Amino acid sequence: MDPELKRLSEFDERIQEIARELGLDFFPQEFDAIPAQKMLQVLAYRFPVNFSHWSFGRDYEREKTKYEHGFGIPYELVLNSNPSRAYLMNTNPFTVQVMVMAHVYAHNDFMKNNFHFKPTRRDILPSASEAAIRFQRYEKRFGLEEVERLMDTGLSIEFNIDPDFFIKEENEEQKRERLSTPPRKAEVLGPYDDLISRKKVERPSAEDYNRKTPPEPERDVLLYIINHSPKPLKEWEKDILSVIRDQSRYFMPQRRTKIMNEGWATFWHMKIMDRLFKERLLKEEEHGYYNLYNARVLATSPRTINPYLVGLKIFEDIEDRWNKGRFGREWEECEDPKEKEAWDLELGQGREKIFEVRRSYTDRFFIEHFLREKLVDELELYLYEGRQEAGEIKYVISERDWRRIKNLLVSHLSTFDIPLIMVEDGDYKGKREIYLKHAYEGIELDQEYREKTMKHIFYLWDRPVHLESIVDGKTVIFTFDGSSHSQNPQR
Q: For residue 362, what are the CA distances in angstroms to 103, 160, 253, 398?
């Protein structure tokens, strides 16, 4: 065995031991050291083996261009699977490879234990590989053009799924039963019951719910089309769309926990590396490599948020606050700055708290609950504006209000700038036309994207597509009938 590989294997064993001592709980871990080209392929195609689509080739060329112009590629890539699979750049210096392996075990722990990852497919790697083989058969049987057009349509609405799929899912029959069942009356009346209004709330009858489709607004547009398209869709078409939906659901938790996941992995790799240096398993001269690359991981830029740094600092702040009891009503109501500065109840609950947060939060609530003014200032997490000065762009602060910055982050992390579109009616006008509604949140739909997406949906539905939205503060209904777009008065 190669001496360096043998040494890495020994470090792998010690990293696992330290990680478990620190409380991390992870799936069995597999590592592959791969060259840059293979890493670029995995980044572009999402998995080591996946179905082919022109957009993946485009993404590969984009990643390759960035790499060739010095923008680099990740030190590692971790897939949410059981066993966990991680790809390491084979050009990483030895010390960096050790740091990355420690980082990977913390990712592994996060994805195994965070609530939002629980229902994801841990067998996604063989699933993607098998799908690639089936799609190739479809191309030979039905033609590349037909298959690719269908994939174009599916990928155009791959994010129009229910992001909260981890909550117990219901089929239509279960939804109808729930909606048509009247709420139970309280058996025991309170002493002020006679003061409560007895106005009867009218509920639609079971017959009404049985007639309406969907019985309530449906966020998973892709699933609704798969199950209800009047086209109708063939089994191979449903298979392709279902694979696209499965992969979108697989990546949803990663998108919703990027700051937490990277912050958690950085928090623990720093602690594990500290132990390795204290145990003298790594040499003093190797400390320089570690410091250099770790500093790169934590680098700041006015153009973007560094999830590694922001997540790390919030987790460190949570641990410190819960260790010292800096939370709760008494802490919040204290108005003496000196008393707050010296506040330390020595509760020692910090480690327990960060594991609790790791288990149940997403980035949206992580930022909303734990990002404080102190952290915004320390991280200089301000809004910046780029200005052209003397032939170069200089960034200046345009917004310092930490509450506004926090609210903007929360808003972005709630939707990821993806408009929320719901199926309101799958039998609009009694003609099996589909009526969609945009949950307007202050940002109008882009016309080009709106029109192209409606064309894609028409291809899947084969009936006129209607989309309700807001333009200039007014409700409008856009329609695509298969040949032209029109704007109609509100129904």
A: 19, 19, 8, 28
Unique residue bearing structure tokens 């890495």 = 8
In what helix (H) or strand (E) does residue 168 lie, and over which residues does it extend?
none
CB 465 within 8 A of CB 458: yes
**pLDDT given at position 452:** 94
Strand 84-89 vs strand 474-480: parallel, antiparallel, or unpaired? unpaired
User: Distance (Å, rounded) from C-alpha 99 to C-alpha 441?
Assistant: 42
- The answer to whether the beta carbons of residues 148 and 54 sit under 8 Å apart is yes
Amino acid at 274: D
Rounded Cα distance between 336 and 359, Å, is 34
Interval 38-61: pLDDT, tens: 999 999 999 999 999 999 999 999
Instruction: Give the chain's end-to-end CA distance (angstroms, integer).
Output: 72
Q: Would you give the DSSP letter of residue 381?
A: -
Q: What share of the chain is helix, strand, coil (3-state, %, to 5)?
A: 55, 15, 35
208-252 confidence digits (pLDDT tens): 555 689 999 999 999 999 999 999 999 999 999 999 999 999 999
Tokens of 22: 């620190």
CA distances from 355 to 237, 311, 312, 313, 364 (A): 43, 14, 13, 15, 17
Mean pLDDT of 482-491: 83
Q: What is the DSSP string of 302-337?
A: TTB--HHHHHHHHHHHHHHHHHHT--HHHHHH---H
Q: Residue 12 is encoded by which pair of tokens?
A: 């792998």
d(CA 63, CA 42): 11
How far is Cα 266 from Cα 311, in angstroms, rounded to an integer?
Answer: 8
441 or 101: which leads in pLDDT: 101
Question: What is the Cα–Cα distance from 71 to 64, expressed in whole angstroms?
Answer: 10
What is the identity of the amino acid at 33? A
For residue 194, give the DSSP letter: G
Closest CA to 46 of 125, 139, 112: 125
Question: Six-digit token pair at 8?
Answer: 């890495």
Query: CB-based contacts of 360: which residues, under 8 Å, 6+ apart?
Result: 114, 115
Q: 3 preceded by cis ω (within 30°)?
A: no
Cα separations in angstroms, 413 against 164, 247, 255, 302, 443: 14, 20, 9, 19, 15
Angle at which helix 258-278 crosses helix 235-256, to 10 degrees, equals 60
The residue-averaged pLDDT of 104-115 equals: 97
Residue 218 has what DSSP assignment?
B
CB 482 within 8 A of CB 466: no
